[in-house]
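Structure tokens please, single chain.
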Amino acid sequence: MITLYDCATAPSPRRARIVLAEKNIPHETVQVNLRSGEHMGDAFRAINPQCTVPALRLDSGELLTDNAGIAAWAEASVPEPPLMGRSPIEKAEIASWQSRIEFEGLYAIAEALRNANPAMASRALPGPINYEQIPALAERGQVRVQHFFETLDQRLADRDFIAGDGFSIADITAIICVDFARVIKQRPAERHANLLRWHAALSLRPSMAL
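Here you go.
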């Protein structure tokens, strides 16, 4: 059986849960308690030396240790429904927006959270190595998230999905970002009407409840 190492309260493994649900890929789940630091302990390091979730153990025994690898494997293993596009140009558009959403949205939120939260002192970056917080990066992250909301709202002015002709990995990453931003007290405002419409529609998908 495929095994997902997960944390129900964290945004990163939620991305993997949504992908597996959209692809209808059966798996079992092992919860890893990030709050207690279980991911930094010897037992989990033996599973994933990167000390991060999600991680996906395949039937073959191989371990995928990030969302990029998990999504690529899922798309190749279960092509329908496609989450990364059909035509070459659609694949390129989705990949481009996926990269942009991660950089402008996900990393900005993480920057704001990890460099300001006292519980993450010396844990400004995920992974096995400790890094000290830089408060100025938290301030910059807050500003970047506002710009990110504006970018998404403009992008969705005349379309139902972020990229391509249908629901894609870019939508998954974007909605994770919008929901995750609450931890730094950022939410789309009424002026982000297109973004709010898109979020409401996507939230109806069964995979989003996971």
